[in-house]
Amino acid sequence: MNLRNLRYFCAAYEVRTTVGAARQCHVTQPVISNAIAQLEEELGAQLFTRQQRGLLPTAAAQRLYRLGGKLLADAEALVETFQDAASHPRLSLRVHPSMNIEHVGRLLRHLRRELAQLQVSVHSEDAGGAGALGEPVDAELVADTCVPSGHAFVPLWDEQYALVVPPDHPLAIREAVALQDLHGVAFVERTHCELAAHWHAGMDALQVVPDVRARVRSEEWALGLVAAGVGVTIAPLHLARRRDDVVVRVDVPELQAARRRVGLAHAGRADGTLAEVLRVCEAWVAGGVLAAL
Q1: For 1-68, which CATH class?
Q2: Stretch (H or E) spanning 77
Q3: How is the chain split into domains, by residue range?
Q4: Distances (CA, A) of 88 to 15, 83, 91, 115, 119
Q5: CB burial class (10 A; 0-12, 13-18, 19+) of residue 151?
Q6: Lowest mean pLDDT among 19-23, 82-86, 196-200, 217-221
Q7: 159-259 is classed CATH 3.40.190.290
Q8: Where is the HTH lysR-type domain (predicted)?
């Protein structure tokens, strides 16, 4: 199997368009299409369904992405074993606990593809050790509303919010839903959401008091509890809409303006490795990933 074709396929899988994958990989669109066609012929399986808005991965594509990503990572690791680790560029990155792990993973994989020798140290405010709040790092992955004073900000993706409910919940089938319908309703609170004040202010104005059954620090936990029937939650749309065990209501009027922009924040002038990382990130956004999320 040609690793270059596999790399082009992974880019198309992540971006969901051949045009965006071509921009991301710095090749032409036909190169991406030919790589996908060659893989489909080699594997004897269709990888994408072509739609007007882009590419829809098949079950075979999902399996290839999972296995192929590991193969590419192993190939990169093999090369690195023959190189001087001390000479590798390094980036220390603090990730806010409310960030979506799937998007963080996609970003880090892209950085490693474009900057093959890059070594990334990822720190979280939840870690309580190195990289915790206040520990110096090269950059922070945060929402624009949380950018530290004096820091520059490079946007990477936008996130819209929606109401997420269990499939058997009354709000799942109600014709119209508003924020006031959450009064007394079992609710899963995401404690590290920067936009929580937006809908809490709306609830306070309407004298809406939900019945908080759980407080969690991550989107994955919140959606898992919703799927288990513990309560409803308000979460970024991109993650919830990919699950088939919850119902997503994007028609709540008070939430339609609730959006956050996620990006990299850094202090001072970007030099050396950080400058290269920002250049790659800007090309990533130009390739259509920001809109795709």
Answers
A1: mainly alpha
A2: helix 59-80
A3: 1-68, 159-259
A4: 28, 9, 10, 10, 7
A5: middle
A6: 82-86
A7: yes
A8: 1-58
